[in-house]
Amino acid sequence: MDLGLNGRVAIVTGSARGIGAETARMLAKEGAAVVITDLDLDAARETASGIEQAGGKAIAVQCDVRKEDQVRTMVGAGKEAFGSIDVLVNNAGLVKDRTILKMDEADWDLVLDVTLKGAFHTCRAALPFMHEKGWGRIINISSRALFGNPGQANYSTAKAGIIGLTRALSLEQARKGVTVNAIAPGYIETEYIKSLPNYDTILANVMAKNAVTFPGETSDIAGAVAFMASEHARYITGTTLFVTGGRYG
Ligand SMILES: NC(=O)c1ccc[n+]([C@@H]2O[C@H](COP(=O)([O-])OP(=O)(O)OC[C@H]3O[C@@H](n4cnc5c(N)ncnc54)[C@H](O)[C@@H]3O)[C@@H](O)[C@H]2O)c1
């Protein structure tokens, strides 16, 4: 199936590693030029150079999505390097887990700011370029945790909030040719998770709750993003695709 991504330009935030890096690799394999952007510039450069070595087009740009000036510079660098901005994947995210009485204000602000304020800044910076072409795709990475996880009041709130942003923007942007959708991953194995000392316990807990018999991989999310970015998804906007191995609660 041709996804029609040849010649498109995609920004993937938090794409130095994990789900974001795999998503950028898949979009590049499908012909898109990609902006690898992250707090971690060295890792972003490594991801971008891997894509170039595989024959794709990529640049690495350091950016903290919480900072509007950095976001505007990063989006401008993508436009300058590749001529347009067609696809925006809001993937940067993190956890700061604590039960609510132990969670301090900084833990709350950090998780909400990266997820929600970050997406606010990136959408505002990228949309004018999508409007120039009358075509665009915004894909927000939420989480199954939007249904609520103990110890994750900040993360669950942020991941539920991003669904509200998705719905509002989908209605605002549909007539300008821009679709806005969310993907809610369940547990996805990344190199980072595999490196944790309690990885075996984490995996056993997940497998007790997944409906399917295997854990998700980064390519499961990358494939869903590539579909949402494609021509085949032109009639889909404002939705949330659950990629959770059948686990919802
Ligand atoms: N792995 C999972 O099981 C899982 C499940 C559900 C949802 N998600 C979501 O998927 C996304 C990617 O997850 P992952 O497991 O690959 O995480 P990860 O920690 O491996 O990668 C996240 C990347 O985001 C970057 N980042 C963090 N704060 C940033 C900021 N302020 N500005 C720019 N970049 C920043 C980090 O440097 C890192 O490279 C996140 O939004 C996460 O919440 C992951």
TrEMBL record:
Enzyme class, UniProt record, top EC level: oxidoreductase
Domain Ketoreductase: 8-186
Keyword hit for Lipid biosynthesis: no
One annotated GO molecular function: 3-oxoacyl-[acyl-carrier-protein] reductase (NADPH) activity
DNA repair found in the keyword field: no
EC number: 1.1.1.100
Keywords of this entry: Oxidoreductase
Coiled coil: none
Family: Belongs to the short-chain dehydrogenases/reductases (SDR) family.
Name assigned to this protein: 3-oxoacyl-[acyl-carrier-protein] reductase FabG
Species name: Cupriavidus numazuensis
